[in-house]
Input
Amino acid sequence: MPTEAIRSIAAKALEEKRVGLVIGFTPGASPLITQPAFIEESSAAGKLIWNDFCVGNLAKHLLRRDKKIGIIANGCASRNIVVYIVENQIKREDIYIIGVPCQGMLDRRKIKALSGRKKIKDIGTESGRVILSGDGFTKEYSRRELLRESCLYCRHKNPVIYDVLIGELTDENKETADQDIELMETQSTEERLEHFRTIFDRCTLCYACRNACPVCYCPTCFTDRTDPKWFDKPPASGDAFTFHLLRAMHCAGRCTDCGACESACPVGIPITKLTRKLNKDIRTLYNFEAGLSIETPSPLSVYDMEDPQDFILTEELKRKAKTITS
Output
């Protein structure tokens, strides 16, 4: 089982002084919740777990530390580690990665909606089915029915880099990963604009999405600057919508579709629908996905004359630019 293997590997790494800290998950306040665990002693490795609710992106906790760190990483967390390496936020040699192939995490909001007011005391899985039980009830659902949206459309379930791998690599799902985005693309520009305006109207600008996002690591976010003051709290017209558009553009070419932003949102806004659309555009235009190679920076952070730029330069201006640079 992943949990026992994680505990054993973490304890050994700490005993051998290979790392000074292991970052993983530990149980939360209910069976539907886990929370980050920061283990510094091998005797405490027994607190670590791996289950269907390890939804936070642990890579977020790697930044600004002064010791070698061990971390439990599935596909999206490992990709964020790669992004940090590419963006010179961490060094590969300072991270000991315990890779875990991922079958996708379950969405506690979906589970709560299906179970109503009944308290869930136990969750079991068997042959692609999820069994929920509590006082006087037992319900069974298909695993896919309860997956988080980002996990439902995940393209990279396996860790892309690791020092030790727990279990066997799993099959990826790249063929149908963009189905919902492709459906959205059949809408007109006006329809899409209205769709996003409507869903972001619920935003309270609490910034939980920003705080959970692994690639939102600026020491001072532009939204927190007061001179000039960028944003007012709702109901100031348009500020929430503007915030999400600007944040999404900041993450374009860097987002790994981990869904941490959406999981953290207290009002259930489907934030990843916007970021996944941008990721699809980056993949289509530049044949690039964030976090797959420590050698390749985001195409939006570098400049190449061969980049698609028809929306900026006419053919004549492109020829002149090439003449100047040659």
Notes: The chain has twelve helices and eight strands. The chain has a mean pLDDT of 88. Residues 108-146 form one domain. Residues 303 and 317 are 16 Å apart (CA to CA).
